[in-house]
Structure formats: C-alpha cells, structure tokens
Design brief:
The chain is α/β, with parallel strands linked by helices. The chain is built from 14 helices and 8 strands. The protein has helices at residues 2-52, 60-85, 93-109, 114-139, 143-175, 219-223, 248-261, 275-286, 309-330, 346-357, 359-366, 388-398, 416-419, 421-440, and strands at residues 181-184, 189-195, 201-205, 228-232, 268-273, 291-297, 377-382, 404-409. It has an 8-stranded mixed sheet with strand order 1-2-4-3-5-6-7-8, sandwiched between helices. Helix 8 links the parallel strand 5 (268-273) and strand 6. Helix 3 runs antiparallel to helix 4. The radius of gyration is 30 Å and the shape is elongated.
C-alpha cells in the first residue's frame, strides 16, 4: 500500500513537473512572439522618425541611409532582447543589423556610395535572408514568431531580387546611345533632339511624367514642314536630375538655356500638353520676345495666386517634408517596382512626383501671362474626360490672344492627345496651323 502511495505521489509530482515545463515553454514562445512584434514595430518607427529628422538631408542617399539605420535598430533589438529575455535567441539577426547599419551610415556619410552600393546590397541581402530562413526553424519553435518573421524576410528577399534586376537594367539603359544631345544648363544636362528644317521652330513640352520619346506620333509629322525640337525635363528620359526645385519658372529657365546652348534660334512655337502647357505659358511670360505662337494641348488651367498670405507660409513649412516623402517614394525604383509603371529610374520617379507636388505653384506662375497680343494661339480640349468647367477655362486661355482658336478634339481623351492617332493628329495639325499663320500672316480658323 505504501509503495502504491509513493508511486501515486511520484506520478503526481512527475505530472506537475511536466505541466510546469509546458507552461514554461508556452510562456517562452509567447514571449518570443511579442519580442518579434516589438522589434519589427521599433524598426519601422525608427526608420520613419529618422527620415523626417531635421539632420537627414532630403536626398536619396540620406533618406535611404536613414531607413536602413532604422531597420537595423529593429534587427539589433530582436537579437539582443531574444537573447536576454527568452530561451530562443535569434543571433542570426545580428548580421542583418550590422549589414543594414553599416550601409545606412555609409550613405549618410558618403552619398556618392549609393551607386556602387546598388551592386553590392542585392546579393548580400539575399544571402543573409536565406541564412535567416535556415536558422528560424531551428532557433524559433514559436509558431507566432515564425509567422511574423517569414513575411518580413520574404519582402526583403523580393527587394533583393528586384534591386539586382533594377541595377542591371539601369546599366543596360545607360549603355544605349542617346538620340540627340546632352547639353549643360548649369549643374545638370538636359536631353535635346531636333529634326526637320525651316522656321519657326516648334518646341514640344510633354505632359507630367512623360518623356520626349512619347511624342513619336507628333514630332515626325511636324518635322515634315518645319523644324521641331523635343527634350526631356530634368530627371526624365535621358536628362540628368536637377539639384534645384522644378516648378514652372525653373523649368522655363532651363528650357531657355537649353535652346540657347543648343543653337536653336527663336522665336519659337511652344506646344505644351497638360502640365507642359503651364510651362509654355510661363516661358511666354518670362521670355515674351522668344515666343511667336503657342499650342495649348488640353492644358491644366493656370490658377491665380492665393488670397490668404497664410497659404504660402503653410506651403513653405510643408515643403521640406514633401521633399522627403518624394525622395522616399522614389526609392521604390531601386527595387525595380516602378518599371511596371513606365518609370525606370529613381530619378524619373522623383521628377514625376515633384512635378505634381509643384503643380499648384506652377499653375500660379503660369497665370502671369495675361496677354498674348495678336500672336497665333490654338487651345485644344479633349472631348472625353473634360467637363463644362474645363472647357470654360480653356475658353479663357484662348482669350489671351486676338488671333486664337479653341478646338474640341472628338474621339480623344487627355493622354490620347499625344499618344493616340486621333489626338496626336489634331495636335500636330494645330502646331502646323500656327506655323502657317506666322508664315502667311493669315488669321487662325476654329
């Protein structure tokens, strides 16, 4: 009886010990899950705070470096806290923390390292991520922890593959011959390409986010009867990125310098599509003697200056944050993501985003042109996607000149005014009609 009692007691003790062990394992697994969640949150928060910190310059290298340093803090926290407070230490996270931290600091200290580093980080990151995937099943029994970490590592693996693809494709793009010329306009060079012969020269301004190559349905038609020039704005197409803000006034200034340095004499016929119309209007306001005529192709309407002085102050106060967000978003191009959106480089993404950020400023600057006298002016409005208010705004633009015509293009939408045969034909004809009016002195017809 005594032996049976002892056995029973011993069995209870063993059962209690097993239960305590199970509770310990469960607690440890729950703790590592919370550590992974906390580390991930800290890494993302640190990256966000460093991006907006005053000491982080609004440049691609600095913003990228800040993000990497923030993420490095998250991986370092995972390694340290899991080792100190759980029985499932994640020491493999140290290598990710060191790699990201050193890369981030290098970019903050030496921005020129951005391009060389773009060849290094994709393969190294992919190796570290694969190593982490190998270690996780062994080092982390916690199911919750694995569920949290594996998607994060999968995203890093995709970033590494996309980054490698982008670096190779960008190198191949850069090796292709440039059509036309790269001409210095100060601290950067712009791409200019001209064709045809005769005066006046038609200068084409593509819309927001577009490049000169997208005018392939318009420029050759014009070149059959007169000289036509296309160019890429800073950071777009073949042109180098600019260090100065790209509002309408700066774009007009750069274009004026480009045409002078490129040996293209004026006066010109400016044809601007969408935002390009704002730049054409601003150019005409700043250099009235250099503009003989204009075509405004479904142009974004100019806007008067705001009545409230607080508006300008608010815009100045938010400009720095806007610059940082633009740069941060544009770094997606380093991962190859934006090639799917026809924006192959970080510079082109940043240029396009900045163009929209500066949109309201450019619209106000374009409103400076209040009178185009009797110079020929054609305003085109796409029939699809425009309402009565847009048509009325285009009527106002046509009223800038006493020799003008406002035409509604049937069968075309906004983008199609350049890229579709119907709209492109109407745009080409409008430019040629302005040229004919200048050569013959005839008044434009609707």
């Amino acid at each position: 009886m005594r032996d049976r009692g002892r056995a029973a007691t011993g069995g209870s003790e063993v059962s209690a010990g097993d239960a305590r062990a199970q509770r310990t394992v469960s607690t440890s697994q729950g703790r590592i899950g919370r550590v992974v969640a906390l580390s991930s949150a800290v890494g993302l928060a640190a990256a966000a705070l460093l991006v907006v910190a005053p000491f982080t310059a609004p440049t691609e290298a600095a913003v990228t470096g800040a993000v990497l340093c923030g993420l490095a803090a998250g991986w370092a926290l995972l390694a340290a806290v899991s080792t100190r407070f759980t029985d499932q230490p994640q020491r493999w996270a140290v290598t990710l923390a060191v790699f990201m931290g050193l890369s981030g600091l290098l970019l903050l200290v030496a921005p020129a390292a951005l391009e060389p580093l773009s060849w290094v980080w994709p393969p190294v990151l992919l190796v570290l991520v694969v190593r982490a995937f190998v270690h996780i099943p062994r080092d982390m029994p916690s199911r919750a922890g694995r569920w949290l970490l594996r998607p994060i590592l999968a995203v890093l693996a995709l970033a590494a593959v996309g980054g490698g693809y982008q670096t190779v494709q960008a190198a191949l793009d850069a090796s292709r011959p440039v059509p036309g010329h790269l001409i210095s306009v100060g601290e950067h060079r712009l791409h200019l390409s001209c064709a045809g012969s005769g005066n006046p020269t038609v200068v084409l301004e593509p819309g927001a986010g577009m490049v000169a190559a997208q005018l392939e349905l318009v420029a050759p038609v014009i070149a059959e009867q007169t000289r036509v020039c296309v160019y890429d704005r800073a950071g777009r197409g073949w042109s180098e990125p600019a260090t100065t803000g790209q509002d309408a006034e700066q774009i007009a200034t750069d274009l004026h310098t480009l045409l002078e340095e490129g040996g293209v004499p004026g006066p010109y016929v400016l044809a601007g599509h969408s935002f390009g119309g704002l730049y054409a209007l601003t150019f005409a306001a700043r250099y009235p003697d250099d503009v003989a005529g204009m075509v405004l192709v479904d142009t974004t309407p100019p806007a008067p200056a705001p009545d409230s002085p607080n508006t300008a102050a608010h815009q100045e106060g938010s400009a720095d944050l806007g610059d940082r967000l633009v740069v941060l978003t544009s770094t997606a191009a380093r991962l190859g993501v934006t090639r799917l959106l026809d924006q192959p480089t970080a510079a082109s993404v940043r240029s396009t985003l900045e163009e929209y950020v500066q949109g309201s400023t450019s619209a106000r600057q374009a409103a400076a042109l209040g009178d185009f006298a009797d110079r020929p002016l054609i305003v085109l409005t796409a029939a699809f996607g425009r309402d009565a208010e847009d048509a009325a705004a285009h009527d106002v633009l046509a009223g800038l000149s006493t020799n003008s015509a406002h035409r509604v293009v049937r069968g075309a939408d906004h983008g199609g005014m350049i890229t579709d045969p119907t709209g492109a034909a109407a745009t080409s004809q409008a430019a040629l009609d302005v040229v004919t009016s200048l050569r013959t002195g005839q008044t434009l017809t609707p």
